Amino acid sequence: MIAPYINVSKLDVGKRQLETAIKLFLTDADPISIHTLSAAAQEVFNCLLKKQGSGVSFIEKSIKEFVEPGKQEEIKKHFASSKNFFKHANNDSDGVHKFYFKLTEWFLWDTCNMYKSLTGESPELVSVFLIWFYSAHRDVLITDLAKQQLFDKLLKSFSLTSDNKSKFLELLPELVVLQNK
Questions:
Q1: What is the pLDDT of residue 177?
Q2: Are the C-beta atoms of residues 31 and 24 closer than 8 Å to each other?
Q3: Of 57, 95, 94, 96, whose CA–CA distance to 79 is shortest?
Q4: Taking residues 39-43, what's their average pLDDT?
Q5: Are residues 35 and 61 in contact, defined by beta-carbon separation less than 8 angstroms?
Q6: Which of 37, 71, 76, 80 is the most exposed place for a label (fewest CB within 10 A)?
Q7: C-alpha–C-alpha distance, residues 38 and 15, integer Å
């Protein structure tokens, strides 16, 4: 008989939230659900990283590094506003929120990198998302030559474009094999 429960660690919870968010993202599913799952995983990983003493999220680190101390809380609130609106209804049950869904891509990127920092691993879905992300944001991200060549090879080999996210998910097994070569 199968037990009516599962035992999960915080790391496993975050990984499941992240992988589900990636699947939804790559299939252009509901942006609210994607953002909520990504933000929840990011929060779990951020706490685990702090507990390990091995860092914080890139977004949190960047706010501390590049934003004036007197403005940091305001910026943090802006980044957390969608997550909080989606999660709570105690103070603004009749409220309406302007959701900038393009930010979710950056939350997913940050969360994937946090998972990699915590575990030293890059699960298949994380790898596929990161390949999509770097191909979609080539104009703003700094990547080393080897990584750029890998992305170029993958995109060319499978005729991938960042506009067709679901194709990245469909080619998951092949992309992972090529990435590990």
A1: 67
A2: no
A3: 57
A4: 93
A5: no
A6: 71
A7: 10
User: What's the CA gap between 155 and 29, in Å, rounded?
Assistant: 23
Is 68 in contact with 34 (CB distance < 8 Å)?
no
What DSSP string runs through 24-52? HHHTT--HHHHHHHHHHHHHHHHHHHHHH
pLDDT for 39 equals 92
- CA geometry: angle 160, 34, 139, nearest 5 deg: 40
pLDDT digits (tens, 9 = 90+) for 105-160: 988 999 999 999 999 998 889 988 988 888 888 777 767 777 777 777 777 877 77
- Domain residue ranges in the chain: 9-121, 122-181
C-alpha distances out from residue 115 to 106, 136, 157, Å? 14, 21, 28
